[in-house]
Specification:
Layout: H1 2-14, E1 24-25, E2 31-34, E3 37-41, H2 54-67, H3 75-79, H4 82-95, E4 99-103, H5 106-117, E5 123-127, H6 132-141, E6 144-148, H7 153-166, E7 172-177, H8 189-198, E8 202-206, H9 221-224, E9 233-237, E10 247-251, H10 253-262, H11 264-267, H12 274-289, H13 292-311, E11 322-328, H14 330-342, E12 345-346, E13 349-350, E14 360-365, H15 372-388
Parallel strand pairs: 3-12, 5-6, 5-7, 7-8, 8-9
Antiparallel strand pairs: 1-2, 2-3, 4-10, 9-10, 11-14, 13-14
The structure holds pyridoxal-5'-phosphate.
Pyridoxal-5'-phosphate (PLP) binds at residues 105-107, 110, 131, 133, 177, 181, 206, 208-209, 237, 239, 247.
Length: 393
Protein backbone atom coordinates (compact mmCIF):
# COMPACT_ATOMS: atom_id res chain seq x y z
CA UNK A 1 0.00 0.00 0.00
CA UNK A 2 2.65 2.68 0.85
CA UNK A 3 3.63 2.33 -2.82
CA UNK A 4 0.57 4.41 -3.81
CA UNK A 5 1.86 7.46 -1.95
CA UNK A 6 5.31 7.10 -3.44
CA UNK A 7 3.98 6.77 -6.98
CA UNK A 8 1.74 9.80 -6.55
CA UNK A 9 4.58 11.92 -5.17
CA UNK A 10 6.91 10.88 -7.99
CA UNK A 11 4.27 11.81 -10.52
CA UNK A 12 3.92 15.25 -8.93
CA UNK A 13 7.68 15.74 -9.06
CA UNK A 14 7.80 14.75 -12.74
CA UNK A 15 5.11 17.34 -13.54
CA UNK A 16 6.70 20.14 -11.53
CA UNK A 17 3.76 20.07 -9.10
CA UNK A 18 5.43 18.75 -5.93
CA UNK A 19 4.93 20.94 -2.85
CA UNK A 20 6.80 21.11 0.43
CA UNK A 21 6.70 23.26 3.56
CA UNK A 22 9.11 26.12 4.19
CA UNK A 23 9.98 27.11 7.74
CA UNK A 24 10.20 30.82 8.50
CA UNK A 25 12.26 31.82 11.52
CA UNK A 26 11.16 34.81 13.58
CA UNK A 27 8.33 37.19 12.80
CA UNK A 28 6.26 37.62 9.65
CA UNK A 29 7.56 40.92 8.33
CA UNK A 30 8.65 42.57 5.08
CA UNK A 31 11.86 40.54 5.45
CA UNK A 32 11.89 37.03 6.92
CA UNK A 33 14.59 34.55 7.79
CA UNK A 34 14.58 31.42 5.65
CA UNK A 35 17.27 28.75 5.88
CA UNK A 36 19.47 31.10 7.88
CA UNK A 37 19.25 33.91 5.32
CA UNK A 38 17.17 37.13 5.27
CA UNK A 39 14.84 37.24 2.25
CA UNK A 40 12.40 39.88 1.07
CA UNK A 41 8.89 38.61 1.70
CA UNK A 42 6.64 39.09 -1.35
CA UNK A 43 4.30 36.22 -0.48
CA UNK A 44 2.45 37.21 2.65
CA UNK A 45 -1.17 38.31 3.08
CA UNK A 46 -0.03 40.36 6.09
CA UNK A 47 -0.77 43.42 3.94
CA UNK A 48 -0.57 46.04 6.67
CA UNK A 49 2.20 44.49 8.74
CA UNK A 50 -0.26 43.85 11.59
CA UNK A 51 0.97 40.29 12.31
CA UNK A 52 3.94 41.66 14.23
CA UNK A 53 2.53 45.04 15.28
CA UNK A 54 3.51 45.88 18.89
CA UNK A 55 -0.05 46.90 19.83
CA UNK A 56 -1.47 43.60 18.59
CA UNK A 57 1.19 41.58 20.39
CA UNK A 58 0.48 43.42 23.60
CA UNK A 59 -3.31 43.04 23.24
CA UNK A 60 -2.92 39.33 22.52
CA UNK A 61 -0.76 38.82 25.61
CA UNK A 62 -3.21 40.83 27.73
CA UNK A 63 -6.16 38.74 26.53
CA UNK A 64 -4.29 35.53 27.33
CA UNK A 65 -3.36 36.86 30.74
CA UNK A 66 -6.98 37.77 31.56
CA UNK A 67 -8.88 34.93 29.85
CA UNK A 68 -6.40 32.06 29.48
CA UNK A 69 -5.12 30.18 26.46
CA UNK A 70 -8.19 28.33 25.24
CA UNK A 71 -11.91 28.97 24.95
CA UNK A 72 -12.66 25.51 26.37
CA UNK A 73 -15.63 24.56 24.19
CA UNK A 74 -17.56 25.30 21.03
CA UNK A 75 -19.57 28.51 20.80
CA UNK A 76 -22.96 26.98 21.67
CA UNK A 77 -21.66 24.95 24.62
CA UNK A 78 -19.69 27.31 26.87
CA UNK A 79 -17.00 28.67 24.56
CA UNK A 80 -18.52 32.10 23.88
CA UNK A 81 -16.43 34.56 25.88
CA UNK A 82 -17.02 38.27 26.45
CA UNK A 83 -14.25 38.82 23.90
CA UNK A 84 -16.22 37.02 21.17
CA UNK A 85 -19.18 39.25 21.88
CA UNK A 86 -17.03 42.40 21.91
CA UNK A 87 -15.30 41.48 18.66
CA UNK A 88 -18.56 40.60 16.91
CA UNK A 89 -20.08 43.98 17.86
CA UNK A 90 -16.94 45.71 16.64
CA UNK A 91 -16.86 43.81 13.33
CA UNK A 92 -20.53 44.58 12.68
CA UNK A 93 -19.81 48.27 13.22
CA UNK A 94 -16.76 48.11 10.94
CA UNK A 95 -18.71 46.33 8.18
CA UNK A 96 -21.81 48.52 8.74
CA UNK A 97 -24.09 45.51 9.26
CA UNK A 98 -26.56 44.64 12.01
CA UNK A 99 -24.53 41.74 13.32
CA UNK A 100 -21.44 39.60 12.84
CA UNK A 101 -20.32 36.12 13.86
CA UNK A 102 -16.75 34.93 14.31
CA UNK A 103 -15.68 31.66 12.67
CA UNK A 104 -12.46 29.70 13.19
CA UNK A 105 -10.94 30.34 9.76
CA UNK A 106 -11.94 31.65 6.36
CA UNK A 107 -12.08 28.09 5.13
CA UNK A 108 -14.42 27.08 7.95
CA UNK A 109 -16.55 30.19 7.39
CA UNK A 110 -17.05 29.65 3.66
CA UNK A 111 -17.76 25.96 4.04
CA UNK A 112 -20.08 26.56 7.01
CA UNK A 113 -21.96 29.54 5.58
CA UNK A 114 -22.60 28.19 2.08
CA UNK A 115 -23.62 24.72 3.23
CA UNK A 116 -26.10 26.17 5.68
CA UNK A 117 -27.59 28.78 3.34
CA UNK A 118 -28.24 26.44 0.40
CA UNK A 119 -28.95 22.72 0.15
CA UNK A 120 -30.47 20.05 -2.05
CA UNK A 121 -32.86 21.58 -4.61
CA UNK A 122 -31.18 25.00 -4.46
CA UNK A 123 -28.76 26.54 -6.94
CA UNK A 124 -25.48 28.30 -6.26
CA UNK A 125 -23.84 30.43 -8.94
CA UNK A 126 -20.09 30.57 -8.37
CA UNK A 127 -17.37 32.48 -10.27
CA UNK A 128 -14.87 30.09 -11.87
CA UNK A 129 -12.00 31.79 -9.99
CA UNK A 130 -13.56 31.63 -6.53
CA UNK A 131 -11.34 30.47 -3.69
CA UNK A 132 -11.11 26.73 -2.93
CA UNK A 133 -13.00 27.20 0.35
CA UNK A 134 -16.00 28.55 -1.60
CA UNK A 135 -15.71 25.66 -4.05
CA UNK A 136 -15.71 23.18 -1.16
CA UNK A 137 -18.64 24.94 0.54
CA UNK A 138 -20.63 24.64 -2.68
CA UNK A 139 -19.79 20.94 -2.97
CA UNK A 140 -20.69 20.23 0.65
CA UNK A 141 -24.03 22.02 0.35
CA UNK A 142 -25.36 19.46 -2.18
CA UNK A 143 -26.99 22.33 -4.05
CA UNK A 144 -26.67 22.41 -7.82
CA UNK A 145 -23.47 24.33 -8.59
CA UNK A 146 -23.43 26.53 -11.69
CA UNK A 147 -19.98 27.91 -12.48
CA UNK A 148 -19.91 31.13 -14.49
CA UNK A 149 -16.92 32.52 -16.45
CA UNK A 150 -14.79 34.90 -14.42
CA UNK A 151 -16.49 38.27 -13.85
CA UNK A 152 -18.71 37.70 -16.92
CA UNK A 153 -22.02 39.26 -15.87
CA UNK A 154 -23.81 38.61 -19.17
CA UNK A 155 -22.99 34.89 -18.89
CA UNK A 156 -24.12 34.87 -15.25
CA UNK A 157 -27.45 36.50 -16.12
CA UNK A 158 -28.02 33.97 -18.87
CA UNK A 159 -27.26 31.09 -16.51
CA UNK A 160 -29.60 32.45 -13.82
CA UNK A 161 -32.48 32.96 -16.23
CA UNK A 162 -32.08 29.53 -17.81
CA UNK A 163 -31.94 27.93 -14.34
CA UNK A 164 -35.14 29.81 -13.41
CA UNK A 165 -36.94 28.39 -16.42
CA UNK A 166 -36.24 24.90 -15.08
CA UNK A 167 -37.14 25.51 -11.46
CA UNK A 168 -38.34 28.71 -9.85
CA UNK A 169 -39.01 27.41 -6.35
CA UNK A 170 -35.46 27.00 -5.13
CA UNK A 171 -33.14 29.33 -3.25
CA UNK A 172 -30.55 31.02 -5.44
CA UNK A 173 -27.17 32.10 -4.09
CA UNK A 174 -24.55 34.04 -6.04
CA UNK A 175 -21.11 33.85 -4.45
CA UNK A 176 -17.88 35.65 -5.37
CA UNK A 177 -14.51 36.69 -3.98
CA UNK A 178 -14.68 40.51 -3.59
CA UNK A 179 -11.01 40.53 -4.58
CA UNK A 180 -9.89 37.37 -6.33
CA UNK A 181 -7.10 35.75 -4.38
CA UNK A 182 -4.92 34.69 -7.30
CA UNK A 183 -5.57 37.42 -9.90
CA UNK A 184 -6.02 40.34 -7.50
CA UNK A 185 -8.89 41.87 -9.50
CA UNK A 186 -12.23 43.03 -8.12
CA UNK A 187 -15.64 41.45 -8.65
CA UNK A 188 -18.12 43.85 -10.34
CA UNK A 189 -20.22 44.20 -7.19
CA UNK A 190 -22.77 46.82 -8.38
CA UNK A 191 -23.75 44.54 -11.27
CA UNK A 192 -23.86 41.50 -8.98
CA UNK A 193 -26.16 43.40 -6.61
CA UNK A 194 -28.43 44.25 -9.55
CA UNK A 195 -28.58 40.62 -10.69
CA UNK A 196 -29.30 39.33 -7.18
CA UNK A 197 -32.14 41.89 -6.86
CA UNK A 198 -33.56 41.21 -10.30
CA UNK A 199 -33.65 37.45 -9.90
CA UNK A 200 -34.51 37.40 -6.20
CA UNK A 201 -31.28 35.69 -5.19
CA UNK A 202 -28.96 36.00 -2.24
CA UNK A 203 -25.54 37.56 -2.79
CA UNK A 204 -22.48 36.49 -0.78
CA UNK A 205 -19.13 38.30 -1.03
CA UNK A 206 -15.83 37.03 0.38
CA UNK A 207 -13.84 40.03 1.66
CA UNK A 208 -10.75 37.96 2.65
CA UNK A 209 -8.41 40.18 0.62
CA UNK A 210 -10.57 43.32 0.62
CA UNK A 211 -10.50 44.22 4.29
CA UNK A 212 -7.61 46.58 4.93
CA UNK A 213 -6.54 46.88 1.29
CA UNK A 214 -9.30 48.64 -0.64
CA UNK A 215 -12.17 51.02 0.03
CA UNK A 216 -12.33 54.10 2.25
CA UNK A 217 -10.46 53.36 5.53
CA UNK A 218 -9.74 49.85 4.21
CA UNK A 219 -13.38 48.79 4.64
CA UNK A 220 -13.14 46.43 1.67
CA UNK A 221 -14.60 45.83 -1.77
CA UNK A 222 -18.19 46.64 -0.73
CA UNK A 223 -17.09 50.05 0.51
CA UNK A 224 -14.95 50.55 -2.61
CA UNK A 225 -18.09 50.15 -4.76
CA UNK A 226 -20.44 51.88 -2.24
CA UNK A 227 -22.65 48.80 -2.01
CA UNK A 228 -22.57 48.45 1.78
CA UNK A 229 -26.01 47.36 2.98
CA UNK A 230 -26.82 45.79 -0.39
CA UNK A 231 -25.06 42.43 0.00
CA UNK A 232 -26.89 39.73 1.98
CA UNK A 233 -23.89 37.80 3.28
CA UNK A 234 -20.38 39.10 3.85
CA UNK A 235 -17.53 36.84 4.81
CA UNK A 236 -14.23 38.31 5.99
CA UNK A 237 -10.99 36.97 7.42
CA UNK A 238 -8.91 37.96 10.44
CA UNK A 239 -5.69 36.26 9.32
CA UNK A 240 -4.70 38.53 6.44
CA UNK A 241 -4.68 42.36 6.74
CA UNK A 242 -5.90 42.11 10.35
CA UNK A 243 -2.80 40.09 11.23
CA UNK A 244 -4.33 37.32 13.37
CA UNK A 245 -6.35 34.22 12.63
CA UNK A 246 -10.01 33.38 12.08
CA UNK A 247 -12.87 34.82 10.09
CA UNK A 248 -16.37 36.22 10.33
CA UNK A 249 -19.76 36.43 8.70
CA UNK A 250 -21.55 39.79 8.69
CA UNK A 251 -25.10 40.67 7.71
CA UNK A 252 -28.59 40.97 9.17
CA UNK A 253 -29.41 39.81 12.71
CA UNK A 254 -31.58 37.05 11.19
CA UNK A 255 -28.72 35.79 9.03
CA UNK A 256 -26.39 35.59 12.03
CA UNK A 257 -29.02 33.83 14.19
CA UNK A 258 -29.67 31.43 11.30
CA UNK A 259 -25.93 30.63 11.06
CA UNK A 260 -25.68 30.13 14.84
CA UNK A 261 -28.46 27.56 14.52
CA UNK A 262 -27.39 25.79 11.33
CA UNK A 263 -23.74 26.28 10.45
CA UNK A 264 -21.94 23.04 11.28
CA UNK A 265 -18.39 24.42 11.12
CA UNK A 266 -19.41 26.92 13.81
CA UNK A 267 -21.45 24.52 15.93
CA UNK A 268 -19.08 21.57 16.00
CA UNK A 269 -15.71 23.24 16.55
CA UNK A 270 -13.96 24.75 19.57
CA UNK A 271 -14.28 28.54 19.63
CA UNK A 272 -11.34 30.83 18.80
CA UNK A 273 -8.99 31.46 21.73
CA UNK A 274 -8.71 34.79 23.62
CA UNK A 275 -5.28 35.69 22.15
CA UNK A 276 -6.57 36.21 18.59
CA UNK A 277 -9.78 37.88 19.73
CA UNK A 278 -7.73 40.40 21.70
CA UNK A 279 -5.26 41.04 18.90
CA UNK A 280 -8.06 41.48 16.33
CA UNK A 281 -9.79 44.09 18.50
CA UNK A 282 -6.46 45.94 18.60
CA UNK A 283 -6.03 45.51 14.82
CA UNK A 284 -9.35 47.26 14.23
CA UNK A 285 -8.20 50.14 16.48
CA UNK A 286 -4.89 50.40 14.62
CA UNK A 287 -6.67 50.34 11.25
CA UNK A 288 -9.19 53.01 12.28
CA UNK A 289 -6.49 55.26 13.73
CA UNK A 290 -4.02 54.82 10.84
CA UNK A 291 -5.79 55.12 7.47
CA UNK A 292 -2.35 55.96 6.02
CA UNK A 293 -1.49 52.23 6.27
CA UNK A 294 -4.11 51.49 3.60
CA UNK A 295 -2.85 54.33 1.41
CA UNK A 296 0.69 53.03 1.82
CA UNK A 297 -0.08 49.46 0.73
CA UNK A 298 -1.96 50.81 -2.30
CA UNK A 299 0.95 53.13 -3.16
CA UNK A 300 3.43 50.25 -2.85
CA UNK A 301 1.24 48.06 -5.06
CA UNK A 302 1.04 50.81 -7.72
CA UNK A 303 4.81 51.24 -7.70
CA UNK A 304 5.49 47.49 -7.99
CA UNK A 305 2.82 47.03 -10.68
CA UNK A 306 4.34 49.78 -12.81
CA UNK A 307 7.88 48.42 -12.37
CA UNK A 308 6.84 44.89 -13.36
CA UNK A 309 4.84 46.11 -16.34
CA UNK A 310 7.74 48.27 -17.52
CA UNK A 311 9.95 45.17 -17.45
CA UNK A 312 7.50 43.47 -19.82
CA UNK A 313 5.63 41.21 -17.40
CA UNK A 314 1.95 40.44 -17.80
CA UNK A 315 0.31 41.25 -14.43
CA UNK A 316 -3.30 40.90 -15.69
CA UNK A 317 -5.71 43.58 -14.50
CA UNK A 318 -5.02 43.60 -10.79
CA UNK A 319 -5.82 46.84 -8.91
CA UNK A 320 -4.85 45.53 -5.50
CA UNK A 321 -1.73 44.47 -3.54
CA UNK A 322 -2.00 41.03 -5.20
CA UNK A 323 0.06 41.05 -8.40
CA UNK A 324 0.02 37.93 -10.58
CA UNK A 325 3.21 37.67 -12.62
CA UNK A 326 2.19 35.33 -15.42
CA UNK A 327 4.58 32.58 -16.45
CA UNK A 328 2.61 29.75 -18.10
CA UNK A 329 4.13 26.32 -17.50
CA UNK A 330 4.23 24.94 -13.96
CA UNK A 331 7.86 23.77 -14.12
CA UNK A 332 9.03 27.18 -15.38
CA UNK A 333 7.19 28.99 -12.58
CA UNK A 334 8.82 26.70 -10.00
CA UNK A 335 12.25 27.42 -11.46
CA UNK A 336 11.47 31.15 -11.52
CA UNK A 337 10.53 31.09 -7.84
CA UNK A 338 13.65 29.06 -6.97
CA UNK A 339 15.96 31.55 -8.70
CA UNK A 340 14.18 34.54 -7.13
CA UNK A 341 14.77 32.99 -3.72
CA UNK A 342 18.43 32.40 -4.52
CA UNK A 343 18.66 36.14 -5.19
CA UNK A 344 16.93 36.95 -1.88
CA UNK A 345 13.25 37.32 -2.89
CA UNK A 346 10.54 35.03 -1.53
CA UNK A 347 7.74 34.94 -4.12
CA UNK A 348 5.96 31.63 -4.49
CA UNK A 349 4.73 29.97 -7.66
CA UNK A 350 1.04 29.14 -8.00
CA UNK A 351 0.51 26.04 -10.11
CA UNK A 352 -2.35 23.65 -10.91
CA UNK A 353 -4.60 22.73 -9.19
CA UNK A 354 -4.55 26.20 -7.56
CA UNK A 355 -4.67 27.77 -11.04
CA UNK A 356 -5.66 26.25 -14.35
CA UNK A 357 -3.26 24.45 -16.68
CA UNK A 358 -0.89 26.78 -18.56
CA UNK A 359 -1.55 29.77 -16.26
CA UNK A 360 1.07 29.16 -13.58
CA UNK A 361 2.39 32.37 -12.15
CA UNK A 362 4.37 34.00 -9.40
CA UNK A 363 1.96 35.56 -6.95
CA UNK A 364 3.49 38.77 -5.62
CA UNK A 365 1.91 40.50 -2.65
CA UNK A 366 3.17 43.80 -1.31
CA UNK A 367 2.84 45.14 2.20
CA UNK A 368 2.49 48.62 3.70
CA UNK A 369 5.72 47.95 5.60
CA UNK A 370 7.85 47.39 2.48
CA UNK A 371 10.13 50.34 1.82
CA UNK A 372 10.70 51.79 -1.63
CA UNK A 373 14.24 50.34 -1.49
CA UNK A 374 12.82 46.87 -0.77
CA UNK A 375 10.55 47.04 -3.79
CA UNK A 376 13.23 48.52 -6.07
CA UNK A 377 15.55 45.68 -5.04
CA UNK A 378 12.89 43.08 -5.85
CA UNK A 379 12.16 44.67 -9.24
CA UNK A 380 15.86 44.42 -10.09
CA UNK A 381 15.82 40.73 -9.12
CA UNK A 382 12.70 40.15 -11.25
CA UNK A 383 14.54 41.76 -14.17
CA UNK A 384 17.66 39.62 -13.74
CA UNK A 385 15.85 36.29 -13.27
CA UNK A 386 13.12 36.94 -15.86
CA UNK A 387 15.73 37.74 -18.53
CA UNK A 388 17.79 34.71 -17.63
CA UNK A 389 14.75 32.43 -18.06
CA UNK A 390 13.59 34.20 -21.23
CA UNK A 391 10.26 35.24 -19.65
CA UNK A 392 10.91 38.90 -20.45
CA UNK A 393 13.00 40.27 -23.35
C1 LIG B 1 -10.60 34.48 -0.97
C2 LIG B 1 -10.26 33.63 0.22
N1 LIG B 1 -11.27 33.15 0.96
C3 LIG B 1 -11.02 32.38 2.05
C4 LIG B 1 -9.74 32.07 2.43
C5 LIG B 1 -9.51 31.19 3.61
O1 LIG B 1 -9.20 31.96 4.72
P1 LIG B 1 -8.35 31.34 5.91
O2 LIG B 1 -6.92 31.36 5.48
O3 LIG B 1 -8.64 32.20 7.08
O4 LIG B 1 -8.83 29.93 6.12
C6 LIG B 1 -8.67 32.59 1.70
C7 LIG B 1 -7.29 32.39 2.16
O5 LIG B 1 -6.49 31.67 1.92
C8 LIG B 1 -8.94 33.37 0.55
O6 LIG B 1 -7.92 33.82 -0.20
Amino acid sequence: MPQIFKQHLEQLKENGLYRSLRVIHGEQGPWVELEGKPVLNLSSNNYLGMASHPRLKEASARATHSYGCGSGASRLICGTLELHEALEKRLAKFMKTEAALVFNSGYAANVGIISSVVGKGDVVFSDEYNHASIVDGCRLSRAEVVIFPHNDMAALEEKISSSLQQNSNNRRLIVVDGIFSVDGDLAPLPELVRLADTYDGLLMVDEAHGTGTVGPEGRGALAHFSVEGKVDIIMGTLGKALGGFGAFAAGSRELIDYLINTSRSLIFSTALPPSVLGSTLAALDVLEQNPSLVAKVQENADYMRERLKALGYDVLSSHTPILPVMVGEAALSTEFSRLLLKEGVLAVALRPPTVSEGTSRIRVTVMATHTREDLAFSADVFEKVGKRLGIIP
